[in-house]
Design brief:
Elements lengths: L3 E4 L2 E4 H5 L5 H9 L5 H11 L4 E5 L8 E2 L2 E6 L2 H7 L5 E4 L5 E9 L12 H13 L2 E6 L4 E6 L2 E5 L2 H35 L4 H28 L4 H11 L2 H13 L3 H9 L3 H4 L2 H9 L12 H4 L6 H11 L2 H6 L2 H8 L2 H19 L5
Parallel strand pairs: 3-6
Antiparallel strand pairs: 1-2, 3-8, 4-7, 5-7, 6-7, 8-9, 9-10
Helix pairs in contact: 3-4, 6-7, 6-8, 6-17, 7-8, 7-12, 9-10
Length: 363
């Protein structure tokens, strides 16, 4: 049974939380072998035929770790690769996987390079990848698995049905977390308009933002592995995360002003365990008491009204904080809006926001 670790009211697979974001270069590797690609068709055909293989993608740095074998220099097709895999040794592909360069090649990496593998084929694959930095693919006929190596990275490809199952489970977690976020942001909206926001209220929303981002990263990795088969998962992910990046940016600008990018960097370094407790966020970002009352600049709330952007920025520049804007007299506000019609429209917009929040509508 897979080990799980509780994340608040969520359950995140232990293996998935260790690293939710794969480095960009390895993401590109996963895209290269995603379902629907020519090389993946060849690998699946080899597995289905009960055949093993060693495949090396030339990065211009592999000459020290192999002997060339038979020169092929032919256009890559899945059928050709399957036929050539009937011979012993490794198959060498061009960097763009457009050509088969050599077959029956002998991998000879440094035997002193440490490896976690036990089988001869997989030991050679891992050592070659570590020594050269090239992408090396080992297909095991006995274990019916495909393992990809690049540098110190190792990734075992899974069947699409298994990835889809995991993606669906993770989307369910994400959906529940989005519901919790919606409650938290609605509460913050109301408190901002009532001028009773505390550091804790803001940190709870930030916490939800960040956990959603990390769960989304897990789903994005699944999407890369799924290739063309991940269309429905992709649509669901977009629906669940729609507008969140912009909302978080506005919130951070509201409470950190020009230092919002620094706040973003601090948040990026926080892991799931640290995010479990909103107090950790308040300590790292605000350096204030958890229950201290604070006021936003008003950028996020005012952007939800229909007033012109120039009026919104003028209000913030003049009054500095949303509290002061909401408490301003008509005389003070007229200095910004310059006519009573625009002032009446602004007041109506704020009243409308309050009414929607009171009856539980999102804004």
């Amino acid at each position: 049974m897979e080990e799980n670790k509780e994340i608040g009211d969520l359950f995140i697979p232990q293996g998935e939380q260790e690293k939710t974001v794969v480095e960009k270069d390895f993401m590109d590797v996963l895209k290269m072998v995603a379902p629907g690609t020519s090389i993946r068709v060849a690998m699946d055909d080899l597995l289905n035929a009960g055949m093993g293989a060693l495949i090396v993608i030339d990065n211009g740095n592999i000459s020290s770790a192999y002997q060339k074998g038979f020169g092929i220099h032919s256009k890559f097709t899945p059928q050709k690769l399957v036929e050539l895999a009937k011979m012993d040794g490794a198959i060498i592909l061009s960097k763009n996987v457009k050509k088969i360069l050599y077959a029956n090649s002998f991998l000879s990496p440094n035997s002193e390079i440490t490896t976690r593998e036990t089988g001869t084929r997989h030991k050679s694959a891992e050592r070659t990848a570590k020594q050269t930095g090239a992408i090396v693919i080992a297909i095991s006929e006995r274990k019916k698995k495909i393992t990809i190596y690049q540098g110190d990275k190792r990734h075992e490809l899974r069947d699409s049905s298994e990835i889809l199952r995991r993606a669906a489970e993770t989307l369910q977690i994400l959906e529940k977390q989005r519901e919790s976020f919606n409650e938290a942001i609605t509460n913050l909206n109301l408190m901002e308009l009532q001028r009773i926001v505390t550091v804790k209220d803001v940190c709870v929303v930030i916490q939800r933002f960040e956990i959603i981002k990390r769960i989304s990263d897990i789903v994005k990795k699944y999407l890369i592995e799924l290739g063309r088969e991940g269309a429905i998962v992709s649509m669901s992910l977009k629906d669940l995360t729609k507008g969140l990046d912009k909302e978080e940016e506005l919130l951070l600008k509201d409470y950190f002003g020009t230092n919002y990018s620094y706040a973003e960097k601090v948040l990026e370094k926080m892991d799931f365990d640290f995010l479990l407790e909103p107090f950790n966020i308040s300590r790292m970002l605000f350096e204030e008491l958890h229950d201290k009352q604070i006021s936003p600049k008003g950028l996020r709330i005012l952007s939800k009204t229909n007033i012109l952007e120039r009026y919104m920025h003028s209000l913030i520049a003049h009054f500095q904080f949303l509290d002061k804007i909401l408490l301003a007299s008509d005389e003070e506000l007229l200095k910004i809006f310059q006519n009573e019609g625009m002032l009446a429209f602004f007041k109506e917009e704020i009243y409308s926001l309050r009414e929607k929040l009171v009856i539980g509508k999102s804004i």
